Amino acid sequence: MTLTTLPLDERESDEQLTDQQIGNVAKTGNLLGAVRLYRLLHSVGLNEARDAVQRILTEQQN
Q1: Is residue 56 situated within a structural domain?
Q2: How confident is the model at residue 11 (pLDDT cuts 50, 70, 90)?
Q3: Is the N or the C terminus of the chain less surrounded, counting Cβ atoms within 10 Å?
Q4: Total structural domains in the chain?
Q5: Is 49 in contact with 42 (CB distance < 8 Å)?
Q6: Closest to 17 (Cα-Cα) out of 46, 32, 37
Q7: Higher confidence at residue 8 or residue 23?
Q8: pLDDT digits 0-9 by tens, 15-39
Q9: Phi, psi of 55 (to 5 degrees)
Q10: Measured on CA atoms in the order 45, 50, 34, 3, is the torsion positive or negative?
């Protein structure tokens, strides 16, 4: 699966990513894609994005 996203300023209002959507990507086994999306959405570094995706997955499991 290839994920292509537009920069935030070029998206329509209904195209905004959420952490829940990123968690859903991670649940499918595409952790790398989820980390990339998180970094794009939040403008953070690799380690912070990886930790955040793990946290999102943990929260969604509860």
Answers
A1: yes
A2: low
A3: C
A4: 1
A5: yes
A6: 37
A7: 23
A8: 678 999 999 999 999 999 999 999 9
A9: -65, -45
A10: positive
